[in-house]
Specification:
The protein is α+β, with helices and mostly antiparallel strands. The chain contains three helices and nine strands, in the order αβββαββαββββ. It has one domain.
């Protein structure tokens, strides 16, 4: 995987819904020795999935929204709790924002399958407060190749 793309994935900021409001995080943090110091959501098992812009190909908004809704419907049919979230570039000149789904308690292999089905380069998967960036498109790298990060809470 291209190192610039990998850096950009790790610095992406995600706004995740919690009971106390939006939690802003990225995967470019330092190792945390005591995971109980992290917000409760980050200690749980979840994935961040999107159907937008397959293989980084910009699609019309209406097409992206339709694909994204189909993904949500399939996740709900699979009995997953699904909540809207967003990933974005936090740089001052950054304009990129992409809707995503926070999928609670999804199995890692199933999350990878959703990423492959919707032609995403990667997905974010987290369990035990350890986020992983997992390759889901063979044109980027070997399927399921994993790059482990550390949560960084943004304010």
């Amino acid at each position: 995987m291209d190192q610039n793309l990998l850096r950009s994935y790790f610095s992406t900021v995600y706004e995740l819904p919690t009971e106390s409001g939006l939690l802003r995080v990225s995967m470019d943090g330092e190792i945390v020795s005591d995971i109980t110091t992290l917000p409760e959501l980050l200690q749980q098992q979840f994935a961040v999935l999107t159907a937008y812009n397959p293989r980084s190909m910009l699609l019309p908004r209406r097409v992206n929204e339709g694909r994204h809704q189909v993904m949500r419907d399939l996740l709900i049919l699979g009995c997953y709790r699904v909540e809207h979230c967003v990933g974005f570039d936090d740089e001052p000149e950054g304009v990129w924002r992409e809707p995503a789904w926070l999928v609670h308690s999804i199995d890692r292999d199933e999350a990878i399958y959703f990423g492959r089905t919707f032609r995403q380069n990667t997905i974010v998967y987290s369990r035990g407060a350890r986020p992983e960036l997992i390759v889901t498109d063979p044109t980027c790298d070997e399927i399921a190749k994993t790059f482990t990060g550390n949560w960084r809470v943004r304010t």
